[in-house]
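Ticket #4471: structure output looks truncated?

Reporter: J.K.
Steps to reproduce: submitted the chain below (209 residues) through the standard prediction queue, then opened the result file.
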Amino acid sequence: MEENRKSPTKILVAIIILMAFSLLAVEYKNSVEIKKLKADKAVLKAEILNKDNQLKSERAKVENQNHYLAEKSSISYTIETVAAVPELTKYRYRRHYKSQHKSWKRQPSVSRGGARSVNVEPIIREVGAAYWPDPAQLDALVWICSHECTTPGVVNPRGFYGLFQLHSPPAWMVLGDAASETKAGCEYIRRRYGNPLAAKAWWVSHRWY
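Returned output as attached by the reporter:
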């Protein structure tokens, strides 16, 4: 009788143990899946963050490039505006004149040569073409020379030298040589006005350049 009573108890204990193991297995499986989901979520989050950082980096590069292009365009526009409308630089050049006036009083160390009559237009066009091939620019260069001096080697009593009547010609300029004087004039115009058309426009407005 006692063995018959123990049998259902054993069976019940076994069932309870099996159920407990089943619950533990399900819980373990669920915990593994949850861990896997968390790991996948972390990987996905890292990928999204990486993509976001890449997009921010690309956006920053584009913004920097746009800023550079805008700045370059602004500088180009300023240069073109100054060249097209020389009056805008009036105050700047007046200040430049005052700051350089004392040095202009000193005699430049140019190679001296006597004044001589020569057809300077072909020489001016040939030398000027190395700076500005445009015929309109060369016409303006000849025009400036015709309104300054047409004889190489001339020194104005006030201290202006050569075909383009420069205040302070470079030391390499050979006074009396039309090609050398034209090159010095081109360097002066390029440095100060950018091109002969801008220099001519300034000359027309102010009667000097």
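Triage note (M.O.): checked the attachment and the full token line is present. Confidence is low (pLDDT under 50) at residues 84-97, 99-105.
Status: closed, working as intended.
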